[in-house]
Amino acid sequence: MEKKTTRQEIFRGNDLTVQRVGQRAKAEKVPYGAELLDRYFDGYPEVIKGEETQPAYQVKVEKDVRVPMRDGVHLYTDIYRPDVEGEKFPALLAFAYWQKNNNESYAWMAEHPQAYLDTPFWDGSLEACDFNYTVPRGFVHVIPDPRGVGDSEGYGTKPWFNGEDVYDMVEWIAAQPWCNGKVGMIGPSAYSIMQIHAGAARPPHLAALRCDECACGTWNYFDGTLDLMAPYMIETGGHGNDSPPGKPNYEYTPDPPLMLSHPDLDKLLEEAREFPDYKYNTKWYSFLRYPRKNPLMFDQLLQSLHPHKGMSSHAFTNEEHADQIQVPIYLGAPWNQRLYEFFTMDMWNTVSTPEDQKKLIIYPPVNTVRPYIEYHDEMVRWHEYWLKGKDNGIMDEPRVKVYVMGIEKWRFEEEWPPKRARHVKFFLQPGGGLAPEKAPDESAAPDVLDQQAPYLDHTVYCLRYSTGALDHDVEMMGELSLKLFAALDNTDTTWYCDLLDVSEDGEQFVVSSGALRAKFRALDEEKSTPAHPVHLWAEPVPVPPGEICEYDIHMLPAACVFQKGHRIELIIRNQDDLTSKMAMNGVYRMPFMQSVEHKIYFGKSHLLLPLI
User: Fold this and answer.
1) Is this structure's pTM higher than 0.70?
2) Low-confidence spans in the chain with pLDDT less than 50
3) Which CATH architecture has domain 50-220+316-392?
4) Which residues neighbour 187 within 8 Å (Cβ) at sequence distance 6 or greater?
């Protein structure tokens, strides 16, 4: 009989630190001609060339301007512009479904930004950028309601995210007497979706994109789990203090769930209603019985059983859209924010923009403040160059700016991921060790993680692996992954992993994380690399109980200096802690509602880290 060891311990999400006080945005001004590579900066570095633009104009507001689209639909639009007549200015377009009138609150909330997790008033929908920053510096700031939102017409005619509307809006703006004929786009998250569609649609007067916290991509990061933050929490206003997306101010018929028209609906519903993750979780089961409670969630619950890239709710963009983008683009994302980081890196590698016309900035972890007011100087410098022709130093910088966790500093890089990184295998060791390039004996008894179904016991258990205290600093930067050889006593599970920087006083800081649904373990061999496994959007393949299978888990890219005396630690678990602060803010995945015993085998199981 096979021997087994049990080292599992209770996992508590609140024991982990996901962001540190003092990580908020601040710039470090760097003189033109200074050394830029192979050094750290206290703030995000900006090469200053010539005089920086100072505020010089008052703000004039025009509300509810009716802008015609090609099909006769009118979009109600707010225009914030310099209060002078006869001058022409470049325009910045912020286009998303977060209701333009909500963004009026920038006028009084920009001086009182709310930090993520540290306040109950962080509202993720306030993302249209600060017109009181951009307009005084010589830009027109345009915020429309998309079709079917607020007073804008056209509900049900097209999705709000479509290339035709943003094309028409850009061209309308460029033709106005107050515009110099050049239009840039701004705004994170939902606003980035329309930037991607605009870049693919190629309106002639679109000059540049500042695509922050990109919320759409080619979906090459598929892990088979159902992440409830995007399809449910954000859509219903349950994530932080989010305002739900806008609906028409006029009477309308809500969209039906698209899966109601599926030819095999009865078969799918029967499967879904017996699926343990839904059957034993009455909140989600209720959406299957009452589809119009939340049509998007009904679709997600059914589609997640047999996912494919053409899923309606994932159709924001795809490889064809991204490949068509050639306009200058500046991408940005925070570390360890799974909604943005994968997509942003995806776009960085997929757009057809010339290499010398695209930039990337990677921020401190999790989320920027709301209202979104950070990194506006970067936004203005970028658009000044492309929309005003001002040689301000931004294009003299290396293409990538990276926040380095662990030491809380910044640095420039020439490319992403850094080619100079050397990938090193840290092997999981019997007894909980984690050792570089030291494969243990394959005959060692496996570690066991025995997790009860949450409706029987909501306690979350985990296994932990550690290097012990480091005798020197270890710098990591780039893509990373976890490879497990494991057996289950069930046909499925979820794998979750967390990479931690554990300080001498015991603080456990999350550097990276990853996930994989076991039944979707199949790899796309053509796209995968050891550090970047890509899983197929394919039919689920049940795990043969008792059989050792290989699991390749794509973890979020990261940059961190693990300082001398700290420990590099890996946590492996099967559930999110639904009692944690993160989960209470709507950041968690669908619980796996079955009991399962996991056996993790030694010899080949390892963490792959990109060391500098």
Assistant:
1) yes
2) 1, 312-317
3) 3-Layer(aba) Sandwich (3.40)
4) 94, 95, 96, 127, 128, 129, 195, 210, 212, 372
